[in-house]
Amino acid sequence: MLLTAAIDATAAAPWVLLTLDLLGVFVFALSGGLAAVRQRFDVVGVLVLAVAAGLGGGILRDVLIGAVPPVGVSDWRLLSAAAAAGVITFLFHPRLPRIAWSITLLDALGLGLFAVAGTLKALELGTTALTAVIVGVLTAVGGGVVRDLLAGEPPSVLVQRELYAIPAIVGAVTYASLWSAGLVSPFITWGCVVLTVTIRLLALRLNWRAPAPRPAIDGG
Amino acid sequence: MLLTAAIDATAAAPWVLLTLDLLGVFVFALSGGLAAVRQRFDVVGVLVLAVAAGLGGGILRDVLIGAVPPVGVSDWRLLSAAAAAGVITFLFHPRLPRIAWSITLLDALGLGLFAVAGTLKALELGTTALTAVIVGVLTAVGGGVVRDLLAGEPPSVLVQRELYAIPAIVGAVTYASLWSAGLVSPFITWGCVVLTVTIRLLALRLNWRAPAPRPAIDGG
Amino acid sequence: MLLTAAIDATAAAPWVLLTLDLLGVFVFALSGGLAAVRQRFDVVGVLVLAVAAGLGGGILRDVLIGAVPPVGVSDWRLLSAAAAAGVITFLFHPRLPRIAWSITLLDALGLGLFAVAGTLKALELGTTALTAVIVGVLTAVGGGVVRDLLAGEPPSVLVQRELYAIPAIVGAVTYASLWSAGLVSPFITWGCVVLTVTIRLLALRLNWRAPAPRPAIDGG
After folding, report:
1. What is the pLDDT of residue C2?
2. Comparing C25 with B218, which gets the higher pLDDT?
3. CA torsion through residues C36, C42, C43, C49, sign
4. Taking burial as the number of CB atoms within 10 A of a residue's CB, which of A164, B68, C62, C187 is the most buried?
5. CB-CB neighbours of C161 under 10 Å
6. Helix (H) or strand (E) segment spanning residue C178
7. Quick one: three-class SS letters along chain B?
């Protein structure tokens, strides 16, 4: 019954979910394409890195929960969205910095949606709430890690100081907690997405930082 | 019936398939061993990198399509071929540059065989043609990506300008298209391997290059 | 019957196994946290890298043998041990170098336990002895590879000269050989752990080194 309710929750407005899902893949793929351009990769490298960044998180999620083949290699719509982002990056990248704020906004949207969608998919497959949270967070940040490793850069989720993983953790924990309490509704699903996005954007706007380790003290 | 036909197609000359399969693993493993020597790894590092490069693509393929444990960790013949390449690299690497052209030729052979074999294995497990193509290409290029990441080098499939992924894509798309049309025969299987190898070698010989992104224009 | 015997073997003293298992995760997670501190990551980065290093090997193992979702994302005790190591590293890292020898000792213990536990888990799931050995070794060294890749460092298992993979291989081969011969007992299980740890510590103490490749000779 919970399962049915959950499917209802996401099925309530399937075109909205699909739109945002494709948007999430698309935006993460844009970030992958831009990383490839920075590294002076050719058109194949730009496409490969766009696809890896857009689909990497979902593939990791599906491998971990045993949903193989992953939708990232089986759903043509997701693949098309990622490839389109690669082509657009290749053709129009000199103009992309002008829309940097839009990209940051959409990236935050992608983070929120993927965190909730990853958690939801794991819960529907019968995992515990803990597993679902881990899988949700990995879905949200996984694509970026793959992108950075392939581009030869340190993973931005590890090195950047603005909160990135924490909003995803908050969103996934909130969603899994409510689900475990039997609270499943479209309002909750979208509320958790909005929560994640809001925390991420507030962190950027207000320059929230996670604390860094103290420097080691010689002889201390 | 298609499935049966496909098995017949590859079963027609099993020793040829096995020979080329082992050769593919062997050659990719040689490239891994050489990368380890360049990085001054010790004998364990040379062996590990040879095995990772030789078997990485097939392991990635099998994890994605749920064929676990992957043949890369279960078939002693593939493991032996990869380990043998590592030992040979360790012992004889000063002579390997002399046979650089042979290695490039065999590497192209490996690319062609793995692209077709990966596509075929996915199709036999009932995936869609799209999934099979993605899996086939990942099989062909995956080992090299693992090798380069472990060796601390940028993935050559992303940074090298001669066509590498594109021949694999052409071979996989052609094979999956013909399969979907019901055309399955040994002639087609080997034809797609030859097609992939030919495009790769022509790209090298004629110096075909994929276009690079335009430089960003300040103020543009 | 063998399966039952094996379970008995590990079930004989479950609290000891759990203790050492948690200790292994904990110690590998400490090494991940310290790598993050070296790279000046913030508290999130320290936690993420600690968890990745502590759980990475087990997740890789479970994905390869199809035991999904991996215990690394489903068992709260392992997750807690890894997270606790991350928090401790973040708070107390200036003092950790003072206990470097303890860490090296515990790391060797982790290597031994994970090599045997990985081999055992694969054998129990019905793999061949060869597959079990590969899986056991990957379990033992996998977490460190994930840690080093995420931290942007060359994998220490490849670059460090003291024997690291070899003790794990010896332990896994010995355990799988005895299992295949029908010899399964707590004594054997713990004996293989001790064997692995001893070889690792002897290699460190006596400065055993694996041979490096000869330099390439110009014109040779």
Report:
1. 42
2. C25
3. negative
4. C62
5. 16
6. helix C165-180
7. CHHHHHHHHHHCCHHHHHHHHHHHHHHHHHHHHHHHHHCCCCHHHHHHHHHHHHHHHHHHHHHHCCCCCCHHHCCHHHHHHHHHHHHHHHHHHHHHHHHHHHHHHHHHHHHHHHHHHHHHHHHHCCCCHHHHHHHHHHHHHHHHHHHHHHCCCCCHHHHCCECCHHHHHHHHHHHHHHHHCCCCCHHHHHHHHHHHHHHHHHHHHCCCECCCCCCCCCCC
pLDDT reading at B175 higher than 90: yes
pTM value? Answer: 0.84
Tokens 């869609």 locate to B128
Q: Is A193's pLDDT higher than 50? A: yes
Take residue A179 and report the two structure tokens written for it: 């689900």
Instruction: Determine contact: C86 vs chain A, CB below 8 A.
Output: no
**DSSP letters spanning C197-217:** HHHHHHHHHTT-BPPPPPPP-
What are φ and ψ of residue A102, in 5° steps? -60, -45
* CA C101 to centroid of chain Cα atoms: 17
Quote the CA–CA distance of C83 and C99 in Å, as a whole number.
20
Mean pLDDT calculated for residue range A62-69 = 88
**Inter-chain touch A63–C68, beta carbons under 8 Å:** yes
Q: Which chains touch C (3 or more CB pairs under 8 A)?
A: A, B
Token pair of A184 as six digits: 């499943």
Q: Does B145 touch chain A (CB under 8 A)?
A: yes
CA gyration radius, chain A: 18
Chain centroid offset of residue C108 CA: 8
Distance CA B115, CA B121 (A): 10
Cα–Cα distance list, C126 to A25, B214, C130 (Å): 38, 54, 11
Q: With the C-alpha atoms ordered B95, B98, B100, B103, is the resulting torsion angle positive or negative?
A: negative
Give the 3-state secondary structure of residue A55: helix
Peptide bond into C186 cis (omega under 30): no
Contact A209 C42 (CB under 8 A): yes
The one-letter code for the residue type at B24 is G
Q: How far apart are CA B53 and CA A168, in angstroms?
A: 34
The whole-number average pLDDT for the span B68-82 is: 88
Instruction: Select from A134, A141, A156 the residue whose CB has the most chain C CBs within 10 Å, as the one to mutate to test that interface.
Output: A134
Residue C99 has pLDDT above 90, yes or no: no
Does residue B138 register a pLDDT over 50? yes
Angle (CA) C113 C36 C43, round 5°:
110
Closest in C49, C74, C79 to A127, CB measured: C74
Instruction: Please report, to the nearest 10 degrees, the dihedral formed by the alpha carbons of residues C49, C55, C58, C61 taken in order.
Output: -30
CB A51 within 8 A of CB A82: yes
- Does any CB of chain C come closer than 8 Å to the CB of residue B90? yes
Q: Hunting for tokens 């290409």 — which residue is that? A: B137
- So what's the pLDDT on residue C194? 93
Q: Which contacts of C203-206 are long-range, i.e. CB under 8 A and separated by 24 or more positions?
A: C203/C162, C203/C163, C203/C166, C203/C167, C204/C104, C204/C108, C204/C162
Give chain A positions within 8 Å (CB) of B64.
59, 63, 68-70, 73
